[in-house]
Amino acid sequence: MLHPLGPLPAAVYWRRRLLVLGLLVSLLGGGGWLAVAALSGDSDTSSAAAAPENTEPAGPPALARVVPSLASVQTPTPPPEPVEEPAPAPEPAPPAPEPGGPCTDDMVGLEVRTPGSAPAGGKPTFELVVTNVSPVPCVRALDKELQEIVLLDLGGTRLWGSNDCFPESSDDTRTLGPGEGVAFPLVWGGLSSEPGCAADRNPLPPGDYLLRGRLDTKTSPDAGFSVV
What we know:
Blueprint: H1 10-50, H2 62-66, E1 101-102, E2 108-113, E3 117-118, E4 125-132, E5 138-141, E6 147-153, E7 158-161, E8 173-176, E9 181-187, E10 207-215, E11 218-219, E12 223-227
Parallel strand pairs: 1-5, 3-12
Antiparallel strand pairs: 2-4, 4-9, 5-8, 6-7, 6-10, 10-11, 10-12
């Protein structure tokens, strides 16, 4: 074995023996490696099969459990600011009356003064009183045809008027100082009348009545009067 015999040189036979030996070693090494790999694969498969599957989802990180997510924090919405409505503009003050100008209805006070009561068929005297209630002197027409006193029952039915049967006329324009008043007396005959004095005139029966005065477009409050 150690001394090969043959027609070829000895070195040729040694090289052949070394080549065969190398191939044998390679085959043996490759087979061992395959066996080890197979054993390792079976071990890994067994370990993977033996390990239980963890189906529970992983919990949140520790920091997420302590600090809440900003997406879950609801920021309160501030209430809308109240809208301030502009203050209404003040109404312009009425112009002050001019001294010596005409007395408007607002500058004049008008009332009817009565004795309060009178007997049936009597002839009581009423007064129509015109007063300047403004702070300045003013001018007002006080003509007779502009003055009137009417008598009504408590239901508002007109029963008598001072201009129905004996109308008068005059030209009486006066300047009234502040607070100055003028009284115009008028005698009532105790009878009913209608405008134009066309209807029969009859004595008014006892009862309660109302008197109302007028000066052109200005009217007075009603004053009570009784026939007894």
